[in-house]
């Protein structure tokens, strides 16, 4: 996370309004919900898990037991 100086990007009126609530502190302003990315989309982690899950489903349909799959993929049988 990078920090940006408010006076460099916000209008003076908005800074004055924010200062009514907080001064000299660091605050986090989240992205709008529609701008957020799902977990793992940037790192590729989501894609790897989706591919792993497809492999597990394929092997299960071919007759692999849940216990075998759990051992092979280092998962609990519940997972």
Quick summary of this structure?
With 79 residues, the protein is mainly α. The protein has four helices and no strands.
Structure, described:
The protein is an all-alpha fold. The chain has one domain. It is 47% helix and 0% strand. The protein contains four helices and no strands. The two termini are 33 Å apart. The model has no long low-confidence stretch (mean pLDDT 92).
Set out the fold topology.
Blueprint: H1 6-9, H2 12-19, H3 45-61, H4 66-73
Helix content: 40-55%
Q: Count the strands?
A: 0
C-alpha geometry: rod-shaped
Total number of domains: 1
* Order of helical and strand elements: HHHH
Number of helices: 4
Radius of gyration: 23 Å
Mean pLDDT level: 92
| Unreliable sequence segments | none
N-to-C terminal Cα separation, in Å?
A: 33 Å
Oligomer: single chain
Largest sheet: none
């Amino acid at each position: 996370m990078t920090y940006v100086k408010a006076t460099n990007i916000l209008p003076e009126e908005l800074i004055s309004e924010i200062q009514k609530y907080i001064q000299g502190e660091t605050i986090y302003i989240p992205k709008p919900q529609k701008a957020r990315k799902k977990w793992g989309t940037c790192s590729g982690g989501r894609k790897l898990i989706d591919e792993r899950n497809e492999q597990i489903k394929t092997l299960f349909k071919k007759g692999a037991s849940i216990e075998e799959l759990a051992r092979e993929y280092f998962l609990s049988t519940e997972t």
